[in-house]
Amino acid sequence: MSLRKVLLIDDDEAVNFLNKKKIREFDPACEVITTIDGQDALNYLDGTDACPDVILLDLNMPGMDGFGFLKKYKEMGKCCNESKVFLFIVTSSLRNEDKVQAATSGLVNGYFEKPLSENQIKIIDRLFQ
């Protein structure tokens, strides 16, 4: 795996644990940062010099949800403009409206059902080969 850093954004600690475990099983050297909502993720990004390679974003979260994060992330400009960061939605929402809104954001590279599968991790990894 060529990933160096992945940012998980999900309010469900169990999902974060499972996704982090699956990513680390695929590549033990990958750094995985977990945040609990959009604002927590924006705070992390604002305070770091090194953007993640991949952001995995849930849509349905209390506080700032995934679409709120996308809006503020785009306004922030950091990471989405400075370097190529791949952003994937990882959610339990199968609503077509959510898929369309994510696809038209201009930031989302894919839409996965949670939790992550090994195949989904392989799809992400192929982007770095």
Would you count the extended β strands for me? 5
Structural class: alpha/beta
Report the total helices: 5
How far apart are the first and last residues' alpha carbons, in Å? 8 Å
Contiguous uncertain segments of 5+ residues: none
Q: List the strand order in the largest sheet.
A: 2-1-3-4-5
The oligomeric state of the chains shown is single chain
* SSE order, one letter for each helix or strand: EHEHEHEHEH
Biggest pleated-sheet summary: 5 strands, parallel
* Helicity, as a percent range: 25-40%
Main attributes of the structure:
129 residues, alpha/beta, 5-stranded parallel sheet, 5 helices, 5 strands, 40% helix
Descriptive account of the structure:
The chain has a five-stranded parallel β-sheet with strand order 2-1-3-4-5, sandwiched between helices. 40% of the residues lie in helices and 20% in strands. It has helices at residues 13-26, 38-46, 66-76, 96-103, 118-126, and strands at residues 5-9, 31-35, 54-57, 86-91, 108-113. It contains five helices and five strands; from the N terminus they run E-H-E-H-E-H-E-H-E-H. It is α/β, with parallel strands linked by helices and 129 residues long.
